[in-house]
Amino acid sequence: MIRTENLEKSFGENHVLKGVSTEFYSGKPNLIIGSSGAGKTVLLKLLIGLFEPTDGKVYYDDTDLFSLSDEALRQIRMKVGMLFQGNALFDSMSVGENIRFPMDMFTNKTAAEKEKRVDECLEMVNMEGINERFPSEVSGGMQKRVGIARAMVLEPKYLFCDEPNSGLDPQTSILIDELICDLTNRNNITTVINTHDMNSVMGIGDNIVLLKDGQLAWQGDKTQVLESDSEVLQDFIFASPFLRRLREDALKTRHAQE
User: Fold this and answer.
1) Of 100, 147, 203, 225, which is the most exposed, with the fewest CB atoms less than 10 Å away?
2) Which CATH class is domain 2-226?
């Protein structure tokens, strides 16, 4: 589990996060949502340790992330996997080499051990046998799966995903969501996903954190979204009249069945 306590972040006079206290649970996809400028990316970077807070705490289980020594922080980061918005694959490396890269950086595994782990991770994302291909030789959805395989190669305890469905068609987005959700549940990972995709919110949102103007505006799960009386949540999720009508029809149907 990861939790924040009165988290604040300012850049000069720009007060981006304003006392955010929340929790991200193990074994569940935890989604951060909100309008552009709400503070989602800054929160994600604070959770990873790329930014230091102006005030407040970030705890990994019971460990204060920003009180650690450099070596202790390095040990925590070895337990972190990251799926980047643009995949961040190295074009000059094969798929297998891309996945192996974190092991080359952080482990003393033998070449045989690394190749075995690469194969395991490719099997995990249903991409067996493409080790020698290059990123340019596979589709966008396949590149995203390679990115997930690389993020999983060090068997992370914590997984961060920045807009994992960016640039993908709806069907592929659903498959990526299901894959991330399955890996999270199966490996009891604390997964934090920064997303604009409302299909993800309603599909895998086991814990949803909504930010507005740098503050925690709402927190709950996908089953609570439809019936929540939070105006901030409804204005964000059901921004269009069409979606509002769908919500109203769903509520009427549910109440009629009860």
Assistant:
1) 203
2) alpha beta
Cα–Cα dist 85/194, whole Å:
9
d(CA 79, CA 190) in angstroms, rounded, equals: 11
With the CA atoms of 141, 147, 153 and 154 taken in that order, what torsion angle do they form, in degrees rounded to the nearest 10?
-140
SS3 content of the chain, % helix, strand, coil (to 5): 45, 25, 30
Task: Give the pLDDT confidence of 188-245 residue by residue, as tens digits.
Answer: 999 999 998 888 988 999 999 999 999 999 999 998 987 888 888 888 887 666 566 7
Give the residue carrying structure tokens 């990316």.
Answer: 41
State whether the Cα torsion 86-104-139-136 is positive or negative: positive
**Separation between Cα atoms, residue 220 and residue 160, nearest integer Å:** 19
Would you kindly state where each structural domain of the chain is located, as residue ranges? 2-226, 227-258
AA identity, residue 228:
S
Q: Give the tens place of pLDDT for each residue, 26-84.
A: 999 999 999 888 999 999 999 999 999 999 999 999 899 999 998 898 888 889 999 98
Report the sign of the C-alpha dihedral through residues 141, 144, 149, 150, in that order: positive
Label the pairing between strands 215-220 and 158-162.
unpaired
> Is the pTM above the cut of 0.85?
yes
CB 60 within 8 A of CB 25: no
